[in-house]
Amino acid sequence: MRLKIAFLVLLFILPLASAQLRVGFYRRSCPRAESIVKATVARRFRTDKSIPAALLRMHFHDCFVRGCDASILIDSTRKSQSEKDAGPNFSVRGFDLIDEAKRNVEAVCRRTVSCADIITLATRDAMALAGGPSYAVPTGRRDGVVSNPDEVNLPGPSLTVSQSFQFFKAKNMTMDDMATLLGAHSVGVAHCSFFLDRISGPQPDRTMDPALAKKLSNICGAASARNPDPTAFLDQGTSFTMDNQFYKEIRMKRGVMKIDQELANDRLSSGFVSRYALNSTLFRTRFAQAMVKMGRIEVLVGKAGEIRQNCRAFNPRRRF
């Protein structure tokens, strides 16, 4: 009976914590916070058009482990490893951009703006620069004080739609949310090791367009000592633009990773793919909504967690 009551209390607390996020959280405590992050992202975007994809991936990988608490930013030490050391996070990048944004914000407002909020704001701003929707982001997250590589369990590129959905369902996300968030692949790349099994071997994947398979084979076949695992764009049409072209591509059997193509083929998700392929406005609206929803996953608010001074390290413990 006590266990049941505790579970019911937890179900009540989780949405309550999420509800404490609000648009304009730093309006009084650090009114320039959002503009500082935006300017930092804009400077990087001028020289690196791939940064939106990097930040989208970082944000997803952070939120789907311990919630959106910036635990992915912590560096490992000689005494303990962090989430960065987990296999799925080896290729996550953009940490230096978050560091720069944090330094710029700290110069104006010390120990006020969380690293978790900076990830969320920077991702929104980068996506808008890539042609995606611009929308209001609720803030007020606190930074986590745990980062454990053993807790990193993320959906892989070779899963079926049903298998992938179990990860999203566990975070209170719907099938529509999953189909929408995978639209982030509109601006991403994948290493050959993530899809090589689809284009090589005795039985290549026949759900892939032969012309695309040949193109990918040429890319992966150019592997060298300097570049042992080449990359290919996930959206062959508008590779650096956040739009609905990704959905059009996978409807034409031009999905690079298995999960992308499965999204268009599986009856559980194909309806969403068709709607987004035909209606760019609908996709933009739903993508913004899904990003806001993802950004609320298991957040720390109030006095929970901390506001890190350095995004790569937990604050020193006070001794009394």
From TrEMBL:
Protein's organism? Corchorus capsularis
Q: Which GO terms describe its molecular function?
A: heme binding; lactoperoxidase activity; metal ion binding
Q: What is this protein called?
A: Peroxidase
Q: For this UniProt record, give its keywords in alphabetical order, as a comma-separated list.
A: Calcium, Disulfide bond, Heme, Hydrogen peroxide, Iron, Metal-binding, Oxidoreductase, Peroxidase, Secreted, Signal
KW Acetylation (keyword) present: no
Binding-site list for heme b: 185
Q: What is its EC number?
A: 1.11.1.7
One Pfam family assigned to this protein is peroxidase
List where this protein forms a coiled coil. Answer: none
